[in-house]
Amino acid sequence: MTGTYRISPTDIAEQNAKALPALQEDYDALARRLARSGNDIETITKAVTGFGVALPSWGVGTGGTRFARFPGVGEPRNVFDKLEDCATIQKLTCATPTVSLHFPWDKNKDVHAMKQLGDELGLGFDAVNSNTFQDQANQKLSYKFGSLSHTDAAVRAQAVEHNVECIELGKALGSKALTVWIADGSNFAGQQHFARALDRYLESMRAIYAKLPADWLVFIEHKLYEPAFYSTVIADWGTNYWAATQLGPQARCLVDLGHHAPNTNIEMIVSRLIQFGKLGGFHFNDSKYGDDDLESGSVNPFQLFLVFNELVDAADRKALDVAPAYMLDQSHNVTDPVESLMASAIELQRRYAQACLVDRARLEQAQVENDALMALDTLKAAFNTDVAPILGMARHRANGAIDPLGVYRWSGYRRHKQNERPAAAKQSAGIV
Ligand code: RM4
Ligand code: MN
Ligand code: MN
Description:
It is built from 15 helices and eleven strands. The protein is α/β, with parallel strands linked by helices. Strands 4-5-7-9-10-11 form a six-stranded parallel β-sheet. It starts with 8 loop residues before the first helix and ends in a 12-residue tail after the last helix. The site of beta-L-rhamnopyranose has 11 residues, from loops. One manganese (II) ion (MN) binds near residues 181 and 256.
């Protein structure tokens, strides 16, 4: 069963009372500064308050690499514990109102109990994720050589069926989207016929698409390599866009920031997908070398800002027909996952707030006049603005913590969970 310790609203209010005078001072000073450049701080604060990113259920457990996993203390043992941790993150940050579940990792016989706990904790359910990149105990056929694009029709059918089951689970939870990431690909030149594999993938996806409720979307996630090292079936945004287009209006492209070659211009991919009406959502994380799944904005905060710059620009131009789904997809190997996820959600809010500050008229003028330096300066002026007081005030007004990390550590939450959740004996490598 789940543990009982929860950080109380009184705890948060008491800690906030100590931090409020300094925050108010900083907020007022920033308000005056922004007013000088024609920005109303309240408009930005309101925008930040409306911003939410989904937590990955798989992110609250300690991650690992293929070499080792070093379990943290008080780790969640099941989906109910995971929801408790997610609710703690939401309570403190007020930036993560939903959770994205991953099946069968989060599979529990009593899906209604999951929904009930979500309701009790005030958590909604974002896209459900299918998993055909691992074999489960008692699974009939293996995904060793692929799933939705497998050469064997029976394996493809099994993978389709799993995705359909995910839709059913999602329906019971109130989700409105399915995210499909496949590990299908090849390790050696010649191993796989590129075109035939993609054809088989599309055929499988058509079967899944046919089962989507009318108000659902399916998000296709591309990734250039890993675990397949020579080729992957949905390697890049071009293939992703093509597949989503073939499937129809309910299929959209999902951009996982870590799924591109180093130095790829991801913000331009975002712009293209918006222009082509196919942007579905994001898996936010950061990386230095590959699919590192590091904390959002921890390696390249400017890139994250530039992604939000495209999103805010598109929203201003009313170029988005559907709001993209914002989700975190991270693996926390050496930190407390609750702390990492709080920091990441706040980091997204920060870059979003800064993107709202971009002087779009000035930027457009610089672009028209080919004034490259002024264009960059316009972006940098926003990026270099310390919006922390806006974020703190938005949290305070929503009854969250002005200093989420401070309150979290002060509460001893992890210590409480250590007692409530005795460590499981099993130690495994890998992401969960
Ligand atoms: C993959 C991909 C998927 C995620 C798994 C755990 O690399 O990013 O979105 O579900 O990892
Ligand atoms: Mn992902
Ligand atoms: Mn990934």
